[in-house]
Write a structure and sequence with these properties.
Length: about 475
């Protein structure tokens, strides 16, 4: 059971940002004829957001939450209140060949008053100068002072080559689509950027992150992703030891693949130390702390990540799983509800709800939620959970169909072995379940780190329970060198 003091009130858990000016940078509107220029509009806004977030005295809304309003007809005051900011930077881009026209304005949320506005007619090669001019104009309009090395950090460039920069923006644009296809295309663009400039650190960090996601979400096997992912992250840090994202990729791989708990914690902490406002790093670290049964710390980091990036489906999902892992099922359900309100087409919310119902023995409800998750593009691990739910709900035929489907898929493409282990354990074929768990151990499936908690948290009627006392399973868990539990 989680400790009593775990139920802290989120509104009082952290100081608010209101003691300093706060800004949201919205994605710039593409008014070019070419739709594909969208990557450039998003990229420009994100570059400005990243530059401004290096200023200590300014709070900058997180990218995912600011981009939540893209294409939505939300007024400035609503954006201000949902993101807890006092000003909004918005603009538009017309790109034609090498010519650019960028219009930009800084608006006060309280009265809609334009604090500053400017139009830039330039060539593509001038994009870096334009970014610097906009950033410094915002600093000036908000009457901020840049201290020490802040100005150098704010104006820092990794490249002076507009083409390399463009390839990187395309890569990042695809990576943020959060799909198998998106991550694969992202890697192609990052690699092209590296070909043109072999010391371009952000492209290595982007490659590491995209490959890590392809493995983590069970879309490609470890041998096709992990070695290149580690190499790219390490190379990024050789070029620039302050890249928080590269440390985050290493932390995720060290935790979910290498199973080296102390080293993973150091990498998560290093990522957060370099960028204390990286909600993604905080949310993965929260999951790690939940796994270590350090419940208070897990909840505190999870709540912090949500405060920074409240409208991000990924952050909401990670925090939901953290609540789930520490036994706060009401909070986890609440989190799933918020995700559905925010992004009704994101499979993660229904997957989480399905897992909660499974653990509570409400199998019919679990089936309904997991069916929605699969329809919305949930990967093989979600499909395996649906198979488990069918079996536990007494629908053995449906469970068998999903098992056959996964086995057939595995002949053609990568399907993590843990998927089969989960269903076999639920249809009562424990010998086969153990056989597949051994394969999952060999493959180092990331889901293995939660196996002990999953067995312990299974509902009374769930045949997964019995695996906990099997000598082979006990031996597998021992070989994983799981951290010594605190209780």
């Amino acid at each position: 059971e989680p400790p009593d003091n775990a139920r802290v009130d989120a509104s009082t858990a952290f100081p608010s940002f209101e003691s300093r000016p706060a800004i949201a940078v919205l994605p710039f509107v593409n008014i070019s004829n070419e739709r594909e220029n969208e990557y450039f509009c998003d990229g420009l806004a994100e570059e400005l957001l990243n530059a401004l977030s290096k200023i200590e005295s300014l709070h900058v809304a997180a990218r995912t939450s600011a981009f939540y309003f893209k294409g939505k007809r939300a007024d400035i005051s609503e954006i201000g209140s949902r993101l807890n900011v006092s000003t909004v930077l918005e603009g538009s881009v017309r790109k034609s060949g090498n010519r650019l026209r960028i219009s930009v304005q800084l608006v006060d949320v309280s009265d809609g008053f334009q604090l500053w506005t400017e139009r830039y007619d330039r060539e593509m090669r001038d994009i870096f100068d334009v970014q610097d001019e906009i950033t410094l104009a915002v600093v000036d309009a908000l009457k901020l002072k840049l201290f020490g090395g802040e100005k150098a950090a704010v104006l820092r460039r990794y490249t002076d080559d507009a083409e390399v920069h463009e390839l990187f923006l395309k890569g990042r644009y695809y990576a943020y689509k959060y799909t198998a296809e998106g991550w694969k295309r992202a890697v192609e663009f990052f690699e092209k950027a590296i070909e043109k400039q072999p010391d371009y650190a952000p492209a290595y960090a982007g490659t590491a992150s995209s490959l890590g996601c392809l493995w983590f979400f069970g879309l490609l096997p470890a041998e096709q992703t992990i070695p290149q992912c580690k190499t790219a992250a390490i190379r990024a840090l050789e070029i620039d030891e302050n890249l928080a994202d590269a440390y985050l990729s290493l932390g995720i791989i060290t935790f979910f693949y290498d199973w080296e708990w102390e080293k993973a914690e150091q990498e998560f902490k290093q990522s957060i130390a370099l960028n204390p406002n990286n909600a993604e790093a905080l949310s993965y670290y929260a999951m790690f702390l939940g796994f270590e049964e350090r419940f208070d710390e897990a909840i505190s980091r999870g709540r912090r990540s949500l405060e920074i990036d409240p409208l991000s489906p990924l952050i909401n999902m990670n925090v939901g799983w953290t609540y789930f892992s520490v036994g706060l099922l009401d909070e986890a359900l609440d989190q799933a509800g918020k995700m559905i309100e925010m992004a009704p087409d994101f499979f993660g919310a229904y997957w989480l709800k399905g897992a909660i119902y499974l653990s509570e023995g409400e199998y019919e409800e679990a089936v309904e939620e997991l069916k929605k998750a699969v329809l919305l593009g949930g990967h093989q691990i979600v499909l395996a959970d649906l198979g488990s739910a069918y079996s536990l709900a007494g629908k053995k035929d449906e469970a068998a169909v999903i098992l056959d489907q996964l086995l057939e898929m595995r002949r053609r493409e990568y399907v993590p072995a843990i998927c089969m282990a989960r269903i076999y354990s639920r249809v009562g074929e424990s010998n086969k379940a153990i056989e597949w768990l051994e394969k999952a151990f060999e493959e180092r499936n990331g889901e293995m780190v939660f196996l002990k908690g999953e067995i312990a948290g299974a509902a009374a009627g769930d045949s997964l329970n019995s695996l906990g006392s099997d000598p082979t399973v006990i031996d597998l868990l021992r070989k994983m060198n799981l951290p010594q539990q605190t209780k």
